[in-house]
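Saturday, quiet lab. Running sequence design on the structure tokens for the scaffold JK sent over.
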């Protein structure tokens, strides 16, 4: 099914090839199209910047046994779960252990208990079912999640949850009757969609958005959604922390060869499963800071991926909501530079003797990209683009999007102890 994605259960076809490159700790952001269109090997490090020898979990396609995969997690769960979920036991005798009951304590910052947050948020989280026909002529029925955006029946979800669907229904929290809905707008580049309940009931409770730009690694978060399609109307709740910020996820459709590049993603260890896509990732106040979208899995002989999921930041969602309400666009043109970068940290500065104290460290340059044409190299530290100060990987991504494809921009960078200014002709991101 073309709109399905491979998940850790192996039930769909969207998988995420990796971005090979030299090891730098910290979040990676790809400034441009799917930076590793899946084939390049890691190039040599720039002069004076030797790649560390430590292993890096990579995200790639299945060509090499054991490499990691990252997959969007909305679809294909009907065949996996069916009418229920079977739990396997090993058949051995078991004994009952009495556990002393204790009063539930606060689980998150500020003394807030998880049940209080769940009570606040669950009425705003819905289950979504999308049905249609694939390009191969077969039919599909996929399940995902969504968040109520307003009291008039608008629901936010991932584009891949509803892509190609002929029919979409929404099941509200605590209900068993599915309500017909219509897709209002989509943005496949950012994997976002907005659907509208055709006949919304009164009393819908919209989510409250938090400020994802204020998140820090280690912040407590809770994920809610229609995990495994266990029971529409009763979301599954998992909890964890923010594991990293500014991650890049590249998803590809194995059957069609289409690529989807998602940048500036929140990484979390809160369990995310098939069917969670489009659901809420909330902070300790119950505000939505992200949309659950993808999860890591592995294949071959490599160690299985554990507790690595990804969410679209709320800042991205809120910024695109007006566009989605106006219909969105499947032909959105995005500017790209063609580098993979990481935040410069104090540890990196000390380890590699970088001159600037902040910037975007280039760990990979896409062949024949604007950055490649301009002479940007691995190991460079970009500190300015087109007059915009670049103090992090995310700063660079934002700066690039302030320009149009074809614009010539000056890039200020440091290569070792040498300050350079190069000019790059920005390109247009190819769409999958």
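Result came back. Writing it out in full:
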């Amino acid at each position: 099914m073309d709109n399905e994605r491979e998940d850790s259960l192996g039930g769909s076809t969207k998988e995420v090839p990796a971005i090979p490159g030299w090891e730098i700790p910290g979040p990676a952001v790809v400034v441009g199209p799917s930076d590793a269109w899946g084939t390049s090997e890691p190039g040599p490090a720039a002069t004076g910047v030797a790649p560390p020898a430590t292993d890096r979990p990579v995200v790639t396609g299945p060509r090499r046994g054991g490499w990691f995969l990252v997959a969007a997690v909305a679809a294909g769960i009907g065949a996996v779960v069916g009418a229920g979920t079977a739990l396997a036991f090993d058949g051995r005798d078991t004994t009952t252990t009495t556990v002393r009951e204790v009063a539930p304590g606060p689980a998150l910052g500020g003394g807030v208990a998880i049940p209080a947050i769940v009570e606040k948020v669950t009425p705003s989280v819905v289950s979504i079912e999308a049905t249609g026909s694939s390009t191969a002529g077969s039919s599909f029925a996929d399940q995902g999640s969504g968040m109520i955006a307003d009291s008039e029946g608008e629901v936010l979800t991932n584009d891949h949850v509803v892509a190609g669907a002929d029919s979409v229904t929404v099941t509200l929290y605590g209900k068993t009757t599915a309500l017909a809905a219509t897709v209002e707008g989509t943005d496949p580049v950012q994997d976002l969609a907005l659907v509208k309940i055709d006949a919304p009931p009164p009393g819908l409770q919209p989510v409250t958005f938090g400020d994802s730009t204020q998140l820090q690694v280690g912040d407590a978060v809770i994920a809610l959604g229609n995990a495994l399609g266990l029971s529409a109307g009763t979301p599954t709740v998992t909890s964890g922390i923010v594991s990293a910020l500014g991650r890049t996820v590249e998803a590809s459709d194995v059957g069609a060869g289409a690529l989807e590049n998602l940048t500036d993603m929140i990484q979390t260890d809160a369990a995310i499963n098939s069917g969670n896509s489009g659901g809420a990732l909330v902070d300790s106040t119950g505000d939505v800071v992200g949309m659950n979208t993808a999860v890591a899995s592995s294949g071959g002989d490599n160690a299985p991926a554990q507790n690595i999921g990804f969410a679209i930041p709320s800042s991205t969602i809120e910024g695109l909501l007006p566009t989605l309400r106006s219909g969105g666009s499947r032909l959105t043109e995005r500017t790209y530079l063609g580098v993979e970068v990481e935040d410069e940290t104090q540890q990196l500065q000390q380890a590699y003797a970088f001159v600037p104290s902040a910037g975007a460290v280039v760990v990979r340059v896409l062949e024949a990209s604007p950055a490649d044409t301009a002479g940007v190299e691995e190991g460079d530290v970009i500190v300015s683009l087109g007059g915009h100060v670049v103090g992090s990987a995310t700063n660079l991504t934002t700066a690039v999007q302030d320009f149009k494809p074809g614009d010539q921009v000056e890039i200020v960078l440091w290569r070792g102890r040498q300050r350079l200014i190069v000019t790059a002709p920005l390109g247009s991101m190819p769409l999958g």
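Notes for JK: DSSP finds seven helices and 23 strands in the chain. Helices lie at 77-81, 114-121, 159-162, 314-325, 346-352, 370-374, 393-400. Ask whether to fix the surface positions before the next round.
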